[in-house]
């Protein structure tokens, strides 16, 4: 058996791989379903119904997809520069914390002022959350995978500390939660009687801007060059460290926006269980999208469907909703294996037949 | 100041340090084996969870404790084999594959647990490993409780360090493992199997990580909780770099870490009124980052770490 | 009297996609014989040896080795272990040593059973010591290979092969990294071992050493064996024609009067990295219209020199003056802006971004140029036009300008870099090993381009391990040894060789 790189890349394959990977992951979910003793056909049908069965279900999926688009973009941009931002979960909480900080009465004003302010604060806080690990890497050579991962735990504990301390809502009946976001700082709802909010619009705008910047701007050129070959980029006069710090800031800011959007668009106040792992799931979203920002939107919709569908199926059939996490993990593994077959061809050696 | 001195002089502090260090010792040795062979295994966090779950589940289903440890090791080896398949012959990104393994191992453990126990609110308990009662030596003051009051798994951890050290320093297999992590071509040119060595190292290393996880449910606690691994795997990855991939230093690092954690718990009770308890809870993670920053430039990285190697392609 | 045959290659063929790297090659090797395998880069020498050694599985043909009883044994294809067991040893051009292990461990790797509780290190050392005595190849046994010099590492490679009772030793370009004197020493040691029955296949593209060291010569071109002869009957010109296929025109260097000084190094110091020397007080001046050749074995400070001129390293002491302006601490971007064109030593590592397109690689150094971008956004039509023009002018061939650079051959990657660098009409050109690994045609093209730039008034720093290239292109020659530069007026290989080895002529 021999592995050979493909001479040319068929653009169709680039599209086919993520779709096939997602379908294979969904199919593989039948194994745990069977293990749990569920009627597999009915389970899949229930999952489908849970997303596409009603208008409300569909808007729930879009609501769930919103933070995933942000964290997916955070991972996609960082990974393009080979900056391993695994800290989106923490950056999300930093963004949420900053949003709550400025949005719960520190200042008040008209919506046109408050909403941009909350968004800006969250983005800066999230960005700084990744600038730290990026600085430790460029200055001290400390692996940002480990530092950004560990920072997730530190930030979450810090958020708990804040929620039990200065940020605690005195009206919260003792629960560790923040005061509610002011009405003037809340992201408006998109459709009445659903939970879908304008954070989704912001996410879509971010995706389009990111796509244009990455493929059309000299900044995007530098990012891709640094990611693909930092030595050659440096030799060619690109300031690798500065590029990495910029990417860190933007990647962290996008993850911070996920936090803003959840707090100011959906929940209205901050608790320590704001995110069920959106930061980590963002990595899967980005990989499934082949690190393309526009692709992130599509893969976020898919992953959100898996979560919402599995939740609904879980309620109806009593199968643990961890099935969704399992399916998401399988998607990640399927897509990297799929990527391998996009880049390489396996030949079974006729030479071995002597 | 006096209080801190008193803490350092107490048996219970040192016994706790060693106890807290035990899962880390397993994890660090596992990660060290993988990385010495050239494969970063970020699946560690999930493999810890899988080991914790598998060991506990086996015992809960009626298996003897050591069979539970075996079950954990098998679960670890399984996920190790998956990681090795993706990263060794297929040469996929070790970072991404490792994170994928962590997600897969964690979610499948949780799924299995929930499937087996759909409706329990308080996690069922098992009878965990008990502290060994050695004749005579257990009664030695200080040394007795610190070392001989530990469970068998802590002793296994210490023995693992010795075994890994011996393997790397004294056996031909160890020499080949170190070589494959430095220059796979050197190993291949001598007719040894690069894939075989790396597969073996990743599977064995992952089994050790899983035993570290099993320690949590079978010795430190007596039940399985969601989120119980709580970053221990990531800390091990930082400790391996801190130890510059040397078993002895890794043991030192793990115990140092256990000491800080034990100290933190004691200081929390002393100073809890003035300082929020979260400040202390953060310390393990902060310390890991500091340790990493201190050694990052000086560490003796295995040269082939993260580098994919394909047969027949030079 | 014909000696017994120890090795026979029968019709070996290997195809990589559409390229046939080795086409039906037959060769025999006798006991105690040195067979030279001569050919350009890309002629198929290394492919052939990789098949012999089981690293590649041939598409057709097979390898036979003597079974010591007068018969021949067929080796299973694609099994390095079978080749090792048959007594075939190979010293690769890129050493296959583990740098984190010591000399003894490297020699023993794979030579002892893998699964043993412990190893007898004392006995192993004794065996290695005896081998060193027998062969006259000495290396400090306890030293980590990472700390050894290149020449010492090569000795470890040969010892490693001989330790396995090798009967057939394959040496791939063994002198590429040695001074002429070190190379002579290597050949002397090998000759002594050959007299005791070792057979050697010796791969090279340097005709001089082939003629002096081998018994028989086989010439490869484009994967085909185009000639085979006894060395004593060999005719230099005929071999050269066989290797290249047609007469090649060597670039002519016309005499020019050098102009004003363009680059000056004044007592520049820079610490080296690892086993590589840095710079210890380098001083020189380069003029317009002049090619300054830096001769010397790699690792003697060339990297430090190149890094400073590229803006990748800042000297600890001394001054670098470009066109009268100090640029001692300039960044790569500042050097590019100041009109320095740099052709990096490792073109794959530093020269191109292989995952990006040819067109993108061609504008890598001019992202701020208003012709390429407008307010931070790329001007794609201009990039396309630029790439098409440069591909035409510099004859960059490949699947097209929007294809990723990884799909280009080594020679075309170098042409891409030349196009990017020379199109900006740089005043100073740093050419670091510009022809390494290129075939005659591509190498000649590089030489012509450098001479053309010199005619336009550029100053060129040519760092090369290939002394012939330096003698051919350079107006002045500096020899680099352990971080120091010595100017020489001599054009004599032996005299320059002595300087390369650190001995005053």
From TrEMBL, chain A:
Subcellular location: Cell membrane
Domain of life from the UniProt record: Bacteria
Protein name: Beta-methylgalactoside transporter inner membrane component
Membrane topology: Multi-pass membrane protein
InterPro entries assigned to the protein according to its UniProt record, in alphabetical order: ABC_transp_permease
Keywords carried by this UniProt record: Cell membrane, Membrane, Transmembrane, Transmembrane helix
GO cellular component: plasma membrane
Transmembrane helix among keywords: yes
Transmembrane segments: 12-36, 56-79, 91-107, 113-136, 145-163, 196-214, 244-266, 278-310, 322-341
PANTHER family: ABC TRANSPORTER, PERMEASE PROTEIN, GUANOSINE ABC TRANSPORTER PERMEASE PROTEIN NUPP
One GO MF term attached to the UniProt entry: transmembrane transporter activity
Automatic annotation (TrEMBL), chain B:
Location (main, coarse): membrane
Protein's name according to its UniProt entry: Branched-chain amino acid transport system / permease component
Localization per Swiss-Prot or TrEMBL: Cell membrane
GO cellular component: plasma membrane
Protein origin, superkingdom: Bacteria
Statement: the UniProt record of this protein carries the keyword Acyltransferase: no
Protein source organism: Pseudoruegeria aquimaris
CDD domains named in the record: TM_PBP1_transp_TpRbsC_like (cd06580)
UniProt KW keywords: Cell membrane, Membrane, Transmembrane, Transmembrane helix
Membrane topology field: Multi-pass membrane protein
Keyword Membrane: yes
Record GO terms (molecular function): transmembrane transporter activity
Residues passing through the membrane, by range: 12-32, 39-59, 65-84, 96-113, 142-168, 199-218, 224-243, 250-267, 279-296
From TrEMBL, chain C:
Domain ABC transporter: 7-247, 263-504
GO molecular function: ATP binding; ATP hydrolysis activity
Pfam families, sorted: ABC_tran (PF00005)
Keywords (A to Z) from UniProt: ATP-binding, Hydrolase, Nucleotide-binding, Repeat, Sugar transport, Transport
Gene: rbsA_2
PROSITE patterns: ABC_TRANSPORTER_1 (PS00211), ABC_TRANSPORTER_2 (PS50893)
InterPro entries reported for this sequence: AAA+_ATPase, ABC_carbohydrate_import_ATPase, ABC_transporter-like_ATP-bd, ABC_transporter-like_CS, P-loop_NTPase
Protein name: Ribose import ATP-binding protein RbsA
């Amino acid at each position: 058996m021999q592995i050979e790189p493909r001479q040319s890349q068929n653009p169709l394959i680039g599209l086919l791989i993520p779709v096939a990977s997602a379908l294979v992951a969904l199919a593989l979910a039948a194994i745990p379903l069977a293990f749990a003793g569920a009627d597999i056909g009915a389970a899949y049908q229930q999952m489908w119904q849970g997303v596409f069965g009603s208008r409300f279900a569909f808007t729930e999926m879009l609501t769930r997809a919103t933070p995933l688009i942000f964290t997916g973009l955070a991972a996609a941009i960082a990974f393009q520069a080979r900056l391993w931002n695994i800290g989106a979960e923490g950056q999300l909480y930093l963004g949420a914390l900053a949003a709550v900080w400025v949005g719960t009465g520190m200042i008040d004003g008209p919506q046109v002022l408050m909403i941009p302010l909350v968004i800006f604060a969250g983005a800066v806080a999230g960005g700084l959350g990744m600038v730290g690990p990026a600085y430790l890497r460029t200055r001290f050579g400390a692996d940002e995978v480990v530092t950004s991962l560990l920072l997730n735990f530190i930030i979450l504990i810090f958020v708990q500390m804040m929620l039990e301390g200065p940020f605690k809502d005195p009206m919260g009946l003792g629960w560790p939660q923040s005061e509610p976001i002011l009405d003037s700082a809340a992201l408006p709802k998109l459709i009445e009687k659903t939970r879908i909010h304008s954070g989704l619009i912001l996410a879509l705008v971010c995706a389009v801007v990111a796509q244009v910047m990455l493929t059309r701007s000299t900044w995007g050129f530098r990012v891709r060059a640094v990611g693909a070959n930092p030595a050659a980029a440096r030799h060619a006069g690109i300031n690798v460290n500065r590029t990495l710090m910029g990417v860190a800031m933007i990647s962290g800011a996008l993850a911070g926006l996920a936090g803003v959007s959840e707090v100011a668009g959906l929940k209205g106040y901050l608790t320590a269980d704001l995110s069920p792992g959106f930061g980590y799931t963002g990595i899967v979203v980005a990989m499934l999208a082949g690190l393309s920002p526009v692709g992130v939107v599509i893969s976020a919709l898919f992953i959100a469907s898996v979560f919402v569908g599995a939740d609904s199926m879980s309620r109806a059939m009593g199968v643990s909703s961890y099935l969704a996490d399992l399916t998401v993990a399988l998607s990640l593994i399927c897509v990297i294996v799929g990527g391998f077959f996009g880049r390489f061809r396996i030949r079974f050696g006729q030479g071995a037949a002597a | 100041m006096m209080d801190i001195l008193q803490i350092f002089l107490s048996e219970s502090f040192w016994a706790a340090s060693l106890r807290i260090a035990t899962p880390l010792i397993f994890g660090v040795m596992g990660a060290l084996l993988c990385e010495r062979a050239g494969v970063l295994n970020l699946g560690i966090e999930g493999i810890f969870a899988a080991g914790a779950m598998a060991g506990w589940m086996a015992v809960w289903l009626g298996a003897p404790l050591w069979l539970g440890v075996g079950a954990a090791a098998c679960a670890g080896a399984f996920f190790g084999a998956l990681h090795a398949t993706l990263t060794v012959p297929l040469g996929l990104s070790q970072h991404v594959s490792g994170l994928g393994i962590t997600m897969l191992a964690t979610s499948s453990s949780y799924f299995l647990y929930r499937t087996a126990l759909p409706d329990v609110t308080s996690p069922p308990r098992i009878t965990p490993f008990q502290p060994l009662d050695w004749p005579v030596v257990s009664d030695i003051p200080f040394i007795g409780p610190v070392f001989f009051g530990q469970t068998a798994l802590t002793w296994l951890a210490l023995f693992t360090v010795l075994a890994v050290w011996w393997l790397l320093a004294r056996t031909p297999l160890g020499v080949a493992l170190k070589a494959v992590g430095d220059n796979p071509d050197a190993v291949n040119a001598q007719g040894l199997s690069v894939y075989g060595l790396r597969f073996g190292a990743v599977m064995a290393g992952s089994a050790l990580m899983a035993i570290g996880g099993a320690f949590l449910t079978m010795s430190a606690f007596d039940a399985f909780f969601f989120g119980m691994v709580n970053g221990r795997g990531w800390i091990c990855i930082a400790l391996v770099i801190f130890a510059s991939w040397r078993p002895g230093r890794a043991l030192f690092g793990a115990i140092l870490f256990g000491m800080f954690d034990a100290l933190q718990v004691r200081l929390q009770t002393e100073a809890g009124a003035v300082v929020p308890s979260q400040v202390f809870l953060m310390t393990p993670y902060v310390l890991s980052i500091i340790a990493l920053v201190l050694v990052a430039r000086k560490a003796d990285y295995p040269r082939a770490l993260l580098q994919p190697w394909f047969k027949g392609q030079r | 009297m014909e000696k017994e045959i120890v090795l026979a290659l029968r019709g070996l063929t290997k195809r990589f996609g559409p390229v046939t790297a080795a086409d039906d090659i037959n060769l025999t090797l006798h006991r105690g014989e040195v067979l030279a395998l001569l050919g350009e880069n890309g002629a198929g020498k290394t492919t052939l040896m990789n098949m012999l050694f089981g690293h590649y599985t041939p598409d057709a043909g097979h390898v036979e080795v003597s079974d010591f009883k007068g018969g021949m044994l067929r080796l299973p294809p694609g099994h390095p272990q079978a080749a090792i067991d048959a007594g075939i040893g190979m010293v690769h051009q890129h050493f296959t040593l583990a740098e984190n292990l010591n000399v003894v461990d490297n020699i023993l790797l794979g030579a002892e059973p893998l699964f043993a509780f412990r190893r007898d290190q004392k006995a192993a050392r004794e065996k290695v010591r005896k081998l060193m005595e027998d062969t006259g190849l000495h290396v400090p046994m306890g030293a980590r290979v990472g700390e050894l010099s290149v020449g010492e590492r090569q000795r470890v490679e040969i010892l490693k092969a001989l330790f396995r009772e090798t009967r057939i030793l394959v040496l791939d370009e063994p002198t590429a990294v040695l001074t002429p004197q070190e190379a002579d020493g290597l050949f002397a040691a090998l000759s002594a071992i050959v007299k005791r029955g070792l057979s050697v296949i010796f791969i090279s593209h340097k005709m001089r050493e082939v003629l002096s060291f081998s018994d028989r010569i086989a010439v490869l071109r484009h994967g085909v064996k185009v000639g085979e002869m006894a060395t004593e009957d060999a005719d230099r010109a005929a071999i050269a024609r066989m290797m290249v296929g047609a007469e090649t025109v060597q670039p002519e260097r016309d005499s020019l009067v050098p102009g004003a000084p363009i680059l000056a190094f004044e007592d520049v110091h820079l610490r080296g990295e690892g086993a590589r020397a840095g710079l210890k007080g380098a001083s020189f001046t380069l003029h317009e219209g002049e090619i300054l050749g830096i001769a010397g074995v790699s690792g003697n400070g060339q990297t430090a020199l190149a890094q400073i001129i590229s803006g990748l390293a800042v000297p600890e002491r001394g001054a670098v003056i470009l066109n009268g302006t100090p640029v001692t601490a300039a960044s790569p971007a500042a050097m590019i802006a100041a009109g320095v064109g740099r052709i990096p030593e490792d073109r794959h590592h530093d020269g191109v971004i292989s995952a990006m397109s040819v067109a993108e690689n061609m504008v890598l150094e001019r992202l701020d140029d208003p012709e390429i971008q407008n307010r931070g956004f790329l001007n794609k039509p201009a990039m396309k036009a630029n790439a098409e023009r440069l591909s035409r002018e510099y004859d960059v061939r490949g699947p097209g300008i929007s294809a990723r650079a990884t799909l280009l051959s080594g020679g075309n990657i170098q042409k891409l870099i030349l196009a990017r660098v020379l199109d900006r009409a740089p005043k100073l050109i740093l050419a670091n090993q510009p022809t390494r690994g290129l075939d005659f045609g591509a190498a000649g093209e590089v030489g012509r381009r450098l001479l053309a730039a010199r005619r336009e008034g550029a100053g060129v720093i040519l760092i090369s391990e290939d002394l012939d290239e330096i003698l051919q292109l350079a107006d002045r020659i500096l020899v680099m040894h352990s971080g120091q530069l010595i100017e020489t007026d001599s054009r004599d290989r032996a005299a320059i060789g002595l300087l390369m080895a650190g001995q005053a002529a």
